[in-house]
Amino acid sequence: TETYIKAIDAAGALNAFVHKTPEIARAQAAAADARLKAGDAPDMCGIPLGIKDLFATKGVPSQAASGILAGFKPEYESTVTSQLFADGAVMLGKLNMDEFAMGSANESSVYGPAVNPWRANDSDAALTPGGSSGGSAAAVAADLCLAATGTDTGGSIRQPAAFTGTTGIKPTYGRVSRWGIIAYASSLDQAGPMTKDVRDAAIMLKAMSGVDAKDSTSADIAVPDFEAALTGDIRGKTIGIPREYRIEGLSPEIQKLWDDGIAMLKDAGAKVVDISLPHTKYALPAYYVIAPAEASSNLARYDGVRFGHRAQLSAGDGINEMYEKTRAEGFGPEVQRRIMVGTYVLSAGFYDAYYNRARRVRTLVKRDFEMAFADGVDAILTPATPSSAFALGKESADPVEAYLNDVFTITVNLAGLPGVSLPAGQDSKGLPLGLQLIGKPWEEGELLNIAYSLE
Ligand code: GLN
């Protein structure tokens, strides 16, 4: 713990930690030592973690990297962090992220962007660690913590993992309680671990998982020992390669990464088959209707009354001015854009044309996967992202271009499936690239084992 506290202090330029908690870490580490000595050491005992700022941590600033939650210190602990702490984990601090988890480059944070510890071999330009869990990814990659929590609504665990050479899994929707995680799009949000490797992900996922009476969408399904599933034996497994993910303009380097992954799976004794997921091309637009719609509803609670920031009012201002000024000052531009899009697609005149149509697309996307699994496919292999980490500043310059970056990850959230991103080599600039494996619902153990065989 002391080593990590020092490393965090020395790595301020990465802007990964936005709030450090060394005193809490030392107290938790001492308690973990005592448990170890007493022979009562659960899996996470004494493991120093970073916690994404989206998780409510009792008495510790939890702002979702937003100005509107300035000064907010929850009086409660999220279920995920309670479970991790009960298991002996140590919290080093809160990690940078996109504001309310909206983004793919960590550029929408009120704290400024986190920075990728990797640099291209042909340029000194600072690169994004990805987003929204950019601080988590940067911190794990730079050894500022042993592992971190992330959340994934449309790829926010898997894309930053791919950009930083780390491993991340978004579990099946309902595997991990969302209670105490500041909501973005509730029907898509899931928390998961971001780690150095697949084994750590398996161990930490088990500690995070389980039914929770405080989250009615958490599933009452037994949590297996995911680590025990890591045999590395994938003989006889069937891996699907979805034709529709060979998108136009896919770079030869990404194509090669994918082909190499296919060859490794074949060498390990898996059967690789071509599959079709015909509604893939509608997933991205459907996501960028559904996620903002849910966000506009979830973010209505930030009104200057109950939490965080309240604007200075002028004489004669009433409650409407208070709401307007508070929200205009507190929310950054990307969050305001999403609230406007979401409010528009939910409005009486456009609800059927946009929101209801997007929901129908979502069902079709889910059905595509169900049919592939019914045909005997055990998991699906794709690239995690269409490129390696890009330069900071690019996302804010062109938000629609940034949305396109989520093309491989978003279908998994729409379908509620587990997806893992694991490091799988580097591009010609020496930057890490990630492969994604998509699994059957509740089969995270099998999915992690296939990932393990590629490690
Ligand atoms: N980039 C996507 C978005 O901005 C995904 C974010 C996420 O998974 N939290 O919505």
From TrEMBL:
Keyword Cell wall biogenesis/degradation appears in the UniProt entry: no
Organism: Ketogulonicigenium robustum
Assembly with partners or alone: Heterotrimer of A, B and C subunits.
EC class (word): ligase
The protein, known as: Glutamyl-tRNA(Gln) amidotransferase subunit A
Active site: K52, S132, S156
Record's function text: Allows the formation of correctly charged Gln-tRNA(Gln) through the transamidation of misacylated Glu-tRNA(Gln) in organisms which lack glutaminyl-tRNA synthetase. The reaction takes place in the presence of glutamine and ATP through an activated gamma-phospho-Glu-tRNA(Gln).
Stored InterPro entries: Amidase, Amidase_CS, Amidase_dom, AS_sf, GatA
Pfam families the record matches: Amidase
GO terms of biological process kind: translation
GO molecular function, one term: ATP binding
